[in-house]
Design a protein that fits this description.
The protein contains one helix and no strands.
Length: 81
């Protein structure tokens, strides 16, 4: 994130970290924990429910290719309207 010009960044309210209840038996879904991606030390424990995965790829094209590979491997199909 340091490589990006701070003037060009916009934080969306949905990306802000949420407050978490103190009840450890009710963890948030992994997908909602993505709000803490810039503050991993402050994030609550993951549920490990498979609702989110983080992967690394070099370049935007490779990121898109990997997303499509994962979608195809899980049987995700495009909807036609």
């Amino acid at each position: 994130m340091k490589a990006l010009d701070p003037k060009t960044l916009a934080t969306l309210t949905v990306d802000s970290a949420q407050t978490v209840s103190e009840e450890p038996e009710v963890p948030l879904p992994d997908a909602s924990l993505l709000a803490w991606i810039l503050q991993p030390a402050e994030a609550p424990k993951a549920r490990q429910d498979g609702s989110a995965e983080i992967f690394h790829a070099v370049g935007e094209c490779n990121e898109i290719r990997e997303v499509l590979r994962r979608a195809v491997s899980t049987g995700c199909r495009a909807r036609r309207n």
